[in-house]
Amino acid sequence: MRKLPPLASLRAFEAVARTGSVTRAAEELARTHGAVSRHLKLLADDVGLELFERDGTGLRMTPAAADFYAATRSAFDQLERAYENLGNSAAGPGVHVACSATFAMRWLVPQLAVFYRLHPDIRIRLSMTSAREIRNEGADVLVAWDMSHYTEADRRRAIFLAPVNFAAVCVPACARLAPEKQARIAHGYTSSAWDQWEAKTGKPVARGDVLEFPHTHLCIEAALSGLGVALVETRLIARELAEGSLVAPYGSVEFDDGLRALPAAGRRMNGQAEAFLAWLRGALGAR
């Protein structure tokens, strides 16, 4: 039979030792100051020695307690990792990623073979979303550049991945037209793209009719069909620019905030999701 201290007392000791304060430990554990103090006293009475000394307005561990804390912290770290792995096993392997259909089709899916060679034990499950759909739909992480529809709290939680550079693109024949004769191809849910372009460049581009489409890949197809000028992140049209089927006569401009990842609210991001984001950040940076 194991002789171990009560878990509640052990948690109280670990939290106080780590934070140096009964008040901060009580806040972290969602307990009262008195309850945490009682747990410390029970633990001290059980072992027969003092665990903490007053140090100004805080507490300092006694030498014996410091040794015990080192062992406790190591045990808690191992337990935390094991519990996280247990939860990952229950949820099933892989990372659920929500992103735009165009980003998935034109950049992410073609790159996944590289990711799987590096991480053969992780599988990526994709859900398509748009800038208007602000729900995470159970995904572990959502990837987007336009978060203007998200709450301020979500925007603060978002993790920067890479800069985004947008170019106003069209077929070569359209590029030779005067701006007032060029139709503007707009994304129905990310209208801030053209606003940012004009604010940053001041260039008179596509001043004619406005053609609106609900997805970026439709905007690209419209530009390829010669319907007008579309504003697209350059990674998504790298092939068309290299082949010359689309041209960017006005250059490109870096947009504010960049591409970001929004982890699911209310739950800790697991190791597989962290590995995916680390790879994604590196792959996006290697343009």
From TrEMBL:
InterPro entries: LysR-type_TF_proteobact-type, LysR_HTH_N, LysR_subst-bd, WH-like_DNA-bd_sf, WH_DNA-bd_sf. GO terms for molecular function: DNA-binding transcription factor activity; sequence-specific DNA binding. Keywords: DNA-binding, Transcription, Transcription regulation. Residues 5-62 form the HTH lysR-type domain. It holds the Pfam family LysR_substrate. GO terms for biological process: DNA-templated transcription. The keyword Zinc does not apply. Belongs to the LysR transcriptional regulatory family. This is HTH-type transcriptional regulator TrpI. It comes from Achromobacter anxifer. The lineage of its organism: Bacteria, Pseudomonadati, Pseudomonadota, Betaproteobacteria, Burkholderiales. The gene is trpI_1.
